[in-house]
Amino acid sequence: MRHLDMATGVRYSAPSGMETLTDTLKNLEKTARWPGPSMEEWRRSAFPKEDELPRAAGTPLISWEIAEEDQDAVVIGYGIDDEALALFRTDLADSQTLLDYRHRLDILSRPGSTAVSIRIRKGKVLSRPVVLRYSYRGRDTRYNAHTFILCEQEADARVVEIHDGRAPEMFVTAGTHASCGPGSRLSHELIQNLDDSAVFAYQSLAQTGRDASYRSFEGQFGSRIAKSRMTAECLDKGGDVHMNGVYTARGNQKKDLKPVQRHSSPRCASRSYYKGAVQEDGATVFQGIIEVAKGAFETDAYLSNKNLILNDGARADSIPNLEILNNNVKCSHGSTTGTLREDELFYLESRGIGRKEGRAMLIEAYIEDALGNEQGREPHPAVYEALAQFLKNGESEKP
Amino acid sequence: MELRIHGLHASIEGKEILKGIDLTLPQGEIHALMGPNGSGKSTLANVLMGHPSYEVTGGEVYMDDIDILSLEPYQRARLGLFLAFQYPVEIPGLTAGKFLKRAAELRLEDGGKLNVSSFIRELRAHMDFLEMDHQFINRYLNEGFSGGEKKRMEMLQMLALQPAFAVLDETDSGLDIDALKIVSKGVNSLKGPGFGALIITHYQRILNYIRPDRVHVMVGGRIVRSGGPELVERLEKDGYDWLKSQAAAEHAKV
Ligand SMILES: Nc1ncnc2c1ncn2[C@@H]1O[C@H](COP(=O)(O)OP(=O)(O)OP(=O)(O)O)[C@@H](O)[C@H]1O
Ligand SMILES: [Mg+2]
């Protein structure tokens, strides 16, 4: 069983029945296949075959920002230490494909270069977000990056994780493991704005200890194909999870997102709220799911997905799911799809705002409430930069 | 400046609504436009502003020597035409403040730069004048506003944008008596040589607060009668029937 150390909230014992990490990986290699249309989750992803992707491996440029006054509260580790290794193991529970296997193998075989751990010390409240940026720069190159966030008991932090880079034809796999100690508050924000030719696969697992609060935001803007699965698992009572997401697709971009609200313990609450906007020939898939384990009674979970389709030919599929193995829960989901309204555009125009600008304003307004991950909290500027590209690209089109 | 409407015909979904409107509104004057439900008053307002659903099938509209029918709605707005909507839309996610600031910026001459702090100061003063809570500009545009609050937001925009011509489409409908006085105060405060207004209304009561220079009556997509303020009293007393039958008779003659 996965286990969260209640003292620090960061230590894991190895999952029972598992031998060494190497053995586990070997097993994964035997059973796993490269993701493809025969797997339900990947059916709509249009994910390339392995031999269609670059082989040469590269190392991203990694940079971070921590406020001066927070220096003592945060420990940054480069590579995988024992603690991170323990977390890494629990990650394997979510692994399904050969892609995951390769990703993990790659990180393990190149320690010290592709993994970063961020540890927020017990009881510390950060004054500013920690911003971690992975920049990818090599054309036709494959990258792996893994981030470990350890938010210790009663700590309060915001971590912004940015993946960007303009080189053509990159293939990036990335993963994050976040461990939220008892009573801690962690906000984890992922912003992906890779070159339009990139292929991006992302997987995260966040686990909450007793009365911990986990907020996530994912902004999926760049890449030709982006597949993401962010899982928030409530491991102990009183967990409170909010997952927000915004995704856009233009040109021929494809996005496939799957936030997972996993309730493994009773009396936890989770919300996810995802909004997408598609234009030109862009296509998105949303497959968010609420999973309630046996015994996770008094779960309160809600899942919402809304999509804005900006022209004929753009496509947004919304397939929210519930998997509930328990009575005595409150779970529901909803999804809507809409287009821009002519009367709203006209209203803006009647105040002197041109059509293109009005259109951009309305798209921004549409996704506004999913942009931050907490009321009144400003999203990182990288979100607006990425969004501006999407809004600018739609200008040629007259709705 | 003068807003001149001449022989204006317009239709929606192939159905002709405006059947030849003639109306001239000079700056410095306030005109009232009345008429039964469905006679085409909102259609005229929308066509003046350039709503894309309506097709202009004949006639012309000039602001001085500028043919505004050939302009996009935003260009008309930048020239100083303003429409207070009968049913203002709600735009969740867009704060009233951000929207107003952008609209005010665009009203400046090319290259003009908005002085944000004085803009905010003026906006607050306008809100005080309209007895609006300052919090309104932090809320999403019209979202969850009551009917009267939406109308006040329209008036706030009018005061902030200082248009050359304003068309008020039933801004008085659904207002309580205090709000009505405030809205009237707003219009009266702009009254002067640089401002003309066309007030579309069903009721005499707003015209007790805003003295119109002329009153026009629209029936079946035509202006069937124009006159002074005394026309309002006649309508209040006798309704529209006498004009309807008169209009029908005239139409039959043609
Ligand atoms: N989309 C449409 N298709 C067909 N007819 C329409 C459409 N929109 C409006 N009309 C018709 O146009 C006519 C004029 O409507 P308009 O809203 O201009 O009237 P109005 O004078 O403003 O009425 P009210 O006093 O009730 O506001 C009405 O008969 C209305 O049904
Ligand atoms: Mg009307």
What key attributes describe this structure?
heterodimer; A: 399 residues; alpha/beta; eleven-stranded mixed β-sheet; nine-stranded mixed β-sheet; 6 helices; 39% strand; globular; B: 254 residues; Rossmann fold; six-stranded mixed β-sheet; four-stranded antiparallel β-sheet; 9 helices; binds adenosine-5'-triphosphate; binds magnesium ion
**In terms of quaternary structure, what is this?**
heterodimer
Order of helices and strands of chain B: EEEHEEHEEHHEHEHEHEEHH
Instruction: Please report which band the strand proportion of chain B falls in: under 5%, 5-15%, 15-25%, 25-35%, 35-45% or over 45%.
Output: 25-35%
Instruction: Quickly name the level 1 CATH class of chain B.
Output: Alpha Beta
Q: What ligands can be seen in this structure?
A: adenosine-5'-triphosphate, magnesium ion
Name the structural class of chain A: alpha/beta
| Count of helix runs of chain A | 6
Order of strands side by side in the largest beta sheet of chain B? 6-9-10-3-11-12
CATH topology of chain B: Rossmann fold
| CATH architecture verdict of chain B | 3-Layer(aba) Sandwich
**Rg of chain B, alpha carbons:** 18 Å
> Based on helices, strands and strand pairing, what is the structural class of chain B?
alpha/beta
What's the average pLDDT of chain B?
92
Fraction of residues of chain A in helices? 10-25%
Sheet with the most strands, sense and barrel status of chain B? 6 strands, mixed
Low-confidence stretches of chain A: 6-16
Overall form of chain A: globular
Measured between the Cα atoms of the first and last residue of chain B, the distance is 34 Å
Largest sheet of chain A: 11 strands, mixed
Per DSSP E runs of 2 or more residues, the count of β-strands of chain A stands at: 20
Strand content of chain A: 35-45%
